[in-house]
Amino acid sequence: MGYFRPGDVALRREVLHGEPWVVTPTRVVQDGPDLLGVFTAPGAEFGFFPHPRAHHWQELGRTRWTGIGKLQLHRPGDAYSVDLYWQGEERRFAGFYLNLQAPFRRTARGFDTLDHALDFWVPVDGDWRELDRDEFEEMVADGKYDAAEAEAIQRTAKEIEAMLTARTTWWDPKWAEWEPDPDWPVPVLPDGWEDYPLP
Q: Known Gene3D superfamilies for this protein (predicted)?
């Protein structure tokens, strides 16, 4: 399976308990053997699959991505992405958000993963902190993750804590200066988005 080109639309699909759950169209910024970078644009729509467990965005009636948009950096094999956020009309860089998720798996139309609830926030003007511990524990108790998955997620969290404490982060801070191409339209879900198979 080849790499995507900058500007291509890649579908970020979450798969829960072996079944597609939710999908978001993203715009490819960079793709290669060491890094996949995609941009989630304001207004990008979510596609919800029929699933025994309703997605929380679906329950809240949230159908599109809001805010300025986020850039997501993925390294193959990492159980997290590094997301960059900006604020305000002047697009001031706010910080790095480490989103724990299943290592991405390429598909013909994009990539598959699953959000793991735990996150870390690294603001430009303060100390890093862990987020959503209560939500993660609730999801473990509710069966979203089994015991082995929960243990693996906890290990990833400890590895991230050690990296942030030692200040040995791997990503280039110059990504904070990145801006989306103004000619990129908001990506939409293509026809047949519900039907492409799992890898």
A: FomD-like
**Two structure tokens written together for 94:** 């706010």
Look at residue 106 and tell me if it is in a domain: yes
The one-character DSSP state at 24 is: E
Average pLDDT for 184-199 = 91
**Is position 185 within any domain?**
no
Total domains, the chain: 1
- pLDDT tens for 57-97 read 888 889 999 888 999 999 999 999 999 999 988 899 999 99
Per the CB < 8 A criterion, the answer to whether 38 and 28 are in contact is yes
Q: How many CB atoms lie within 10 A of CB 59?
A: 8
- Cβ neighbour number for residue 44 with a 10 Å cutoff: 21
User: For position 112, which CATH number holds?
Assistant: 2.40.380.10
Q: Which domain holds residue 154?
A: 9-168
Distance CA 130, CA 118 (A): 7
Provide the sign of the torsion angle of the four alpha carbons 137, 60, 51, 70, taken in this order: negative
Pairing assessment for the beta strands 70-74 and 92-101 based on DSSP bridges: unpaired
Residue 176 falls inside a structural domain: no
